Amino acid sequence: MSAYAQQGSVSGKVADEAGFPLVGATVSLEGTNQLTQTQADGTFRFDRLVPGSYRLTVTYQGHVGYNVELTVGDGHQQLDDIVLSTRQISLGEVVVSTQRRTQTSIEVPITVSTLSGATLNRLNMRQMDEMSAFIPGMEVQLQSPNNPGYVIRGITSDDGDSRTQPRISIFQDGISISRSRASVVELFDIERVEVAKGPQGTLFGRGAQIGALHIIQNKAQDRLGAEVNGGYGAYNHRFVNGYLNTPIVAGKLANRFAFNYEGRDGFIRNLSGGRLNGKEVIALRNSTRLWGGTNTTADLILNYQYDNYPGTSFKSKRFAPAGGDTDPNTFADLEQGEDLYIKRHVGGATLLVDHRLGDAWRLSSLSGFRAFDSDESFDADGTPAQLLWLSELAKGTQYSQEFRFTYENNNRFSGFLGAGYFYENSSQEVPMRVNEQVLYPAYIAPILNSQLSGQVGQLGASLGLPDAQVQALTQQIQQLFHTEPVIANGRPQLVENLPDLQPLALGLINQLIPGGLPPGITWQQLLQSGMLPEGVLPEQLIGLVTLLDGSPINHAHNETYTTYGRNQAVELFADGTFDLTEQLKLTAGLRGTYEAQRGGYRADAASPPSVFGMIANNGSPNLLNPVSDGTIYASKNYYSYVGRLALNYVFGRNNIYGSVSRGRRPGVISIIPSETTYLKPEVVWSYEAGLKGLVADGKLGYELSTYYYDWSNFQTLSLQQIPGSIAPQLLADDGGKAHSFGIETGLRYFITPTVNVFGNYAYIDGKFNDTDENGNPQEYAGNRFRLTPDHSFAIGVDADVPLNGRSSVYLRPTYSYKSGVYFEDNNRDDLYQEGYGLANFTAGYRFAVNRIGYEIGAYGKNVFDTRYMIDAGNSGDTIGFPTYIGGSRSIVGAQVRITF
Asked: Per the database record, which ranges form the TonB-dependent receptor plug domain (predicted)?
């Protein structure tokens, strides 16, 4: 008889203590790849089993696990109802869908970090950056919901430009939400969060060059239930969230409505009005599930989130506010006051259909639509002077459709194949308002001083003037352009008139003309008289002298640029696992993609024009944004592939694995009026090995992995001087070759079934190579990757101690640390954050009365009020005014929860 013959069958039903069927409970047979989930009525079934002895295991979120020894014969065995009792902490593996089929986290041959919804609730985490501290090798930089930065194993995905593509995929129930300005969502009523690290293009598409974050939301269940959770704390922190799950037609149709509100006053007082770095968000979700018999389920999920934040404190370290200092965590003075804000609407609809075609085949359809509209107003220079007051108006729509066939014959092969289509159209409009009376002393005067001093020096040399006379002329120019600091005692210092170069020019001409100039002649009279010797003064210098005549400087200058991005992709993919033996398994996957990219740019001429643009920008009416002739577009199409190959060996409840994979980030179309640059797609080869599992009778869970990445055409952001702009612009650039080596580990140990300690550690050595592919020295040779700590760790205790059969007390302290990081790839010392750690906790009392659960507790975030920065540099760095954003301050509060 073949070792893989299947003859027997087993079925049963899983319910809770009240007799309600548990839908989606995970049922597995240890020692095999047999795993399923319970249906709408709580039932499950295994067919074609080889006669013999098995251990059947049942797990369900928030409930005590169940296992039993079975002896399977040639016929069918119907088990008695399996009843799971509730508890807060559950042992054993976590169920994941990373490989597009239901497995435990131990089974998959890649590094996957998982946080259950119960864990998020227990640790009081509702933001993506709070969650990331407990995922080794991952960072989420959350300036605001409109400006996230995702970092996995040293690689950052944070560019808001509509023309660029992400390195890290963000998914919500299988639908990509990766576009930067639409990717931040509140974590409420969540089933679990999965983070798959390394190149995962085979599993998650073209944007998962270095990993994917997948948020799985709770779906409707065939039972009545509800929960309300609320709290209040420091800085007027208030929140309320919950859900109502309602069966509509028993066993056929159910609905789940979930909601979340959270608000908090800003940590930073703004002398010009309002508070900065605050929060206010409303998020709603409605999920409807239809059971079309025992083989079909359909979920319609509607999500909407509205963010209405006060502005972000982009604070300068060059000039302190009146009576204050330059610490980014203390009060600021940003002149627009309450006109600084972030308003963002994000909505989407998802339709998931899963149909079992037979015992082995399943067809899944994933349809998604998403739209976002954000408006952010921010002070880019971080001072009380209106040097750079910017807005960002980002809009976009997205549609995706995927069909996937999954094959699980519970024999020697499981896998999937499918096809997908993705379309997105987005834009990013950036209006800029400048008071040129403060821009002049802050930035323009030194430019004009340097420009004119150089021209006069060249002129003097060409005319044969003595060095002493040339030096005297340049000193006069320096005196004309000498200005006081733009901020004095916390107040802007305006310069209302341009310097007058005409007396200096007339004095110079008077020395060059025999007999000198007529007394009292003006510059305009001189130009009209024809007395100026031809060729003595360059035309450009004549133009500058004419413009700089002491006339008033413009108070308000406005200009705007817009970027456009449209992307379409068609993808074919297949991935599967073949059991070489019952313990040794080979996994391979391949995804091919055709993508059509189009990038656009538009910047109209400012009206009225900027005199400084005319002077320093070769006659341009704009200061920073090169003028285009309407909207200009550029397009490029790509064919590409990514893939993976993994080998793993399962022994007991442990898994040792190794893999090689190829990741890719789509190319970038960088289009400006002077030129269009097509950056090559970024490619990485990944080599990874790991070991994970459960030992000590399931009390100790562990994971250990090490990896090496090799990049070519590494894409970065750098300040580049371009025609039509007085300042360098932050543009996508090809950084060449780079590499990364890292180690990650995580542990969780259950001291008792209700008390466990957990921790993780990550080491990352990610740097640019010394030379590029052609052996040429690189600009960032040896520099560390931005936003990447060398070392990071998190530790915590999760204790829930029963007092009697229906009550308990809990205490859950945590501490996370990361070493110093650079905020830019250029590794400037002034854009660096020293290492720091944050301590949080939740604690309280739980009890139940008449099947209704109550919880009264306290929570604390950054309880020791550690001061740190979450970002530095930003848009102000383009004109020499880097800005700094302070991190979250200490919040301690109380909360209550009612569940029934």
From this structure: 106-211
